[in-house]
Design brief:
With 271 residues, the chain is of the alpha+beta class. The chain is built from 8 helices and 11 strands. It is 34% helix and 26% strand. Strands 1-5-6-11-10-9-7-8 form an 8-stranded mixed sheet. A 3-stranded antiparallel sheet has the order 2-4-3, with no helix packed on it. The longest helix is centred in the first third of the chain and has 20 residues, at 16-35.
């Protein structure tokens, strides 16, 4: 029996102290964005193009009045960029949002995010980190490159699932075993043993990592977002993700952006 006051599994309810802290987090983030001259945007809950970002099984899907496929917003980045370029036709390059996204079967997740058209990944990373600093929070920065596992699969014949699940018994190449061992910026000092394409991507990682103390490198991490095109990152603590971001191209426009997971941040602040 479903009681009248029950809420679906995965849905969110905020009240009292928790609701107040959530509002304070969002206000601090908005202050940071506004000081850095980001424009605010709130996108529709419904979207026609979510399959460009996420796998179909992650989306809550239905149809519109013309029987065209719709989904509840599962990711904000592509919609923000497309709306700015195609509909608003704005010259502003820096945008932020504070809104929920939805994943199947019934998960509701609040996010604080930013998209920077033609922006620099180091700059957007610093913006992300500044919000954490204003909240007196510090998390481990993990840097990866979307092209590395793809190129490894191409060069070795490994399935991408073998790489994603780190089936090390299948990793025969000496350079691949060395790649698995990379964890710090110092590990990127000598790249001579790697194939040229892999070495090039590792150099891109190093260029970003050198700006951040104690960044860890995870060259074989496989992201679940489809639109990353280069370096991407996660802020982590105890296997919990507090933010994700990276480089991508939408409508031919190279951009960078990130999303902070408000609910995870709220739990950390509440202890």
């Amino acid at each position: 029996m479903i009681l009248k006051h029950d809420i679906p599994q995965g849905a969110k309810l905020y009240f009292g102290k928790e609701a107040k802290i959530k509002r304070e987090i969002e206000n601090i983030a908005a202050e940071v964005f506004e000081a850095l001259e980001f424009e605010e945007i709130v996108t529709p809950f419904f979207s026609y193009h979510q399959l460009e970002a996420l796998d179909e099984k992650e989306l809550i899907r239905f149809t519109d009045d013309k029987n065209r496929s719709l989904a509840l917003r599962g990711d904000s980045s592509i919609d923000v960029i497309r709306l700015v370029i195609k509909r608003l036709k704005s010259e502003a390059k820096k945008w932020f949002y504070i809104q929920p996204v939805f994943r199947a079967p019934s998960s509701e997740m609040y996010q604080i995010g930013a998209e920077w058209l033609d922006g620099n990944l180091v700059d957007i990373l610093k913006t992300n980190n500044l919000i954490f600093e204003r909240l007196n929070k510090s998390y481990t920065l993990q840097l990866s490159h979307i092209k590395i596992p793809q190129k490894v699969a191409e060069l070795t014949g490994l399935d991408i699932e073998d790489i994603k699940k780190m089936r090390l018994y299948k990793f025969d190449d000496v350079w691949l075993k060395k790649l698995v061992a990379i964890h710090s910026v110092k590990d990127l000092d000598n790249l001579d043993m790697f194939p040229n394409e892999i070495a090039g991507y590792l150099k891109e990682l190093k260029e970003v990592a050198k700006h951040f103390e104690n960044a860890i490198i995870a060259p074989l991490y496989v992201a679940n977002l489809r639109y990353y095109t280069g370096v991407f990152y996660r802020f982590l603590k105890d296997n919990t993700v507090y933010a994700k971001g990276g480089e991508y191209v939408v409508e031919g426009e190279r951009s960078v952006g990130f999303s902070i997971y408000t609910d995870n941040l709220l739990k950390d602040i509440n202890g």
